[in-house]
Design brief:
- By secondary structure, this protein is mostly helical.
- Helix 1 packs across helix 3.
- About 65% of the residues lie in helices and about 0% in strands.
- It starts with a helix and ends with a helix.
- The radius of gyration is 16 Å and the shape is globular.
Length: about 160
């Protein structure tokens, strides 16, 4: 790949890396798993980047690739995950440590979200990211009406979990 493409990718990833951290937070329970998933999503983003046409915002595309990677990996936990050496890239991606100490109030919500299925997790995640139903439907690949219906069901399910 050419250096300009590589440079543009790294620049966009550094600007939007919190999206990947948030996806990892939703789909993992510990720091080691978080780090592994972060690396795998980054690799999948890199592999898919040459096909990114710019039809959507880079961040929307990142959500889609990140969520699809997380869902695929955690649905098939038993298969081995093939990874690539990250040191082979000339540019190093500076990683900001993900500090969740200020998110004490969200612990209960995350605990409840972990009880949801993979698609429900993705819906909640995008909803909490202030994505509208059109963006949610495009990211997940369902109709806008279906996204609204599923989201209402998930909200009721979360209410039940949080207020037994």
């Amino acid at each position: 790949m050419n250096k300009e493409l590589e440079h543009n990718f790294i620049e966009e990833l550094e600007k939007n890396q919190n999206i990947v951290h948030k996806v990892c937070r939703i789909y993992t329970n510990n720091q080691e798993a978080h780090n592994d998933l972060f690396q795998e999503i980054t690799i999948q983003l890199w592999k898919a980047y040459p096909k990114f046409r710019g039809d959507s915002k880079f961040s929307t595309w990142m959500y889609r690739v990140g969520l699809n990677t997380a869902i695929t990996l955690y649905r098939k936990r038993k298969r081995s995950i093939k990874t690539e050496e990250f040191d082979s890239f000339q540019y190093k991606i500076s990683s900001e440590p993900y500090d969740d100490t200020e998110e004490e109030q969200l612990k209960l919500l995350y605990k409840a979200v972990h009880q949801l299925n993979d698609i429900e997790k993705a819906l909640v995640f995008l909803y909490l990211e202030d994505k509208n139903y059109k963006e949610i439907s495009e990211t997940i690949g369902i109709s806008e009406v279906n996204a609204r219906v599923k989201m209402n069901r998930v909200k009721n399910k979360l209410r039940t979990i949080l207020n037994p």
